[in-house]
Design brief:
By secondary structure, the protein is α/β, with parallel strands linked by helices. The protein has two domains: 2-145, NAD(P)-binding Rossmann-like Domain (Rossmann fold); 150-260 and 289-393, RNA polymerase sigma factor, region 2, helix turn helix motif (Rna Polymerase Sigma Factor, Chain: A). The chain has helices spanning 12-23, 39-49, 59-68, 77-85, 103-111, 121-138, 147-155, 181-185, 189-192, 202-210, 212-225, 263-271, 303-313, 317-333, 340-353, 363-385, 390-393; strands at 2-7, 28-34, 53-56, 73-76, 92-95, 115-118, 142-144, 164-171, 232-236, 242-248, 253-257, 294-295. Strand 10 (242-248) and strand 11 form a beta hairpin. It is globular and about 55 Å long.
Length: 395
């Protein structure tokens, strides 16, 4: 029985994780749940899994839940997140929070010696070297939950160390794969959230629409697998059935295929190095659509170039990239800018930071960089608020 703490339990990855736990009650048990403000769903999760500890975002919500749950310790805020991540009975932490807010509790879990199922890609984007150094010192297992990195983790098991020539991340292409640049510039929030193959939260769905998610995944793959950026490629695969590939020096390419259901990589991460039977229907090869692959278009989707540039610059630049992207995505979702403004804001923020970039040495530096970069990006977003017709792009 593996005891789990789930950070971000009411999000898309968190709910899928709990579904996996419910399918495998003899293998997994929930000891702690951390959520934000979706109290109705959290209440149902607590009733089903009866964790010893629950963390929420706000003090007032914690007080309300505490009166309802006399047998459960209820905490709140950043300290509550850290307490959930470091719960003494937890063996593995599922880090499923969205954005850079997941960094501090993830680091706390690592330092407490907890194995990690990592769905929060921003943790490695903003502080990859620091995090992987902490993982090595703690001697824990870090299992990626992203379907692409889970696929690479599996495909790397095939060949001997040193035989890999290239990692290939697949991208669905998002809802605007076939749209012109002019059409993308007029895209509405509703259109951007209409992902063709995956059901995800709004932030990652917008990242898919701009292909920034694949840029973040390049940085993540670099840190997870120790692969130079120039040996990490991206191909567009609209069917989302080949989740990524590993190319070996003898020309062999190993691909991982499965249905596009996040319960598959989650179960792999939770059960590794074992494999457990899944309730997810397997991929029907005979009736599956033909598999196709395309080159990504850096003109219509500049986010890949920006992410590679930030990774090459190193230091604080990936954290700046992520902070600016989070600010710009929030503005787009709120109807305050057009979709291309996301990449434009990221680029101008990176340019403004370039002369003050420093190597990363501490969590405090990462957090300070994130704070200042958000202010820069927010200032840059103001020019769009005077020219955007909110009625045209609001969901």
């Amino acid at each position: 029985m593996k005891r789990l703490a789930v950070l971000g339990s009411t999000g898309s990855i968190g709910t899928s994780t709990l579904a996996v736990v419910e399918d495998n009650p003899d293998h997994f048990e929930i000891v702690a749940l951390a959520a934000g403000r979706n109290l109705d769903l959290l209440r149902r999760q607590v009733a089903r899994h009866r964790p010893a500890l629950v963390s929420v975002a706000r003090r007032e919500d914690a007080h309300a839940l505490a009166s309802e749950l006399p047998d459960t310790r209820v905490v709140w805020g950043e300290e509550g997140l850290a307490e959930a991540a470091c719960h003494p009975d937890g063996e593995m932490v599922v880090a499923a929070m969205v954005g850079s807010a997941g960094l501090a509790p993830t680091l706390a879990a690592i330092r407490a010696g907890k194995h990690l199922a990592l769905a929060n890609k921003e943790t490695l984007v903003v502080a990859g070297e620091l995090v992987m150094g902490e993982v090595e010192r703690a001697g824990i297992n870090l299992l990626p939950v992203d379907s692409e990195h889970s696929a690479i983790h599996q495909a790397l098991r095939v060949g001997p160390e040193g035989s890999v020539s290239r990692l290939v991340l697949t991208a669905s292409g998002g809802p605007f794969r076939t749209w012109s640049a002019e059409e993308i510039a007029r895209a509405t929030v509703e259109e951007a959230l209409a992902h063709p193959t995956w059901k995800m939260g709004p932030k990652i769905t917008i990242d898919s629409a701009t292909m920034m998610n694949k840029g973040l995944e390049i940085i993540e793959a670099h840190h997870l697998f120790g692969m130079p950026a120039d040996r990490i490629d991206v191909v567009v695969h609209p069917q989302s059935l080949v989740h990524s590939l590993v190319e070996h020096i003898d020309g062999t390419i190993i691909a991982q295929l499965s249905v596009n259901d996040m319960r598959v990589p989650i179960l792999y991460a939770l059960s590794w190095p074992e494999r457990l039977e899944t309730s997810v229907s397997p991929l029907d090869l005979v009736n599956a659509p033909p598999l196709s692959f395309e080159a990504s278009d850096p003109t219509r989707f500049p986010a890949l170039r920006l992410a590679r540039s930030a990774l090459q610059a190193g230091g604080e630049m990936p954290a700046v990239l992520n902070a600016a992207n989070e600010v710009a995505v929030a503005a787009f979702l709120d109807g305050r800018c057009p979709l291309p403004a996301i990449a434009e804001t990221v680029e101008t923020t990176l340019e403004a930071w370039a002369s003050r970039n420093h190597p990363l040495t501490s969590l405090e530096q990462v957090l300070a960089t994130d704070f200042e970069a958000r202010k820069l990006a927010a200032a840059g977003m103001r020019k769009y608020e005077t020219v955007v017709d909110r009625s045209e792009i609001r969901c």
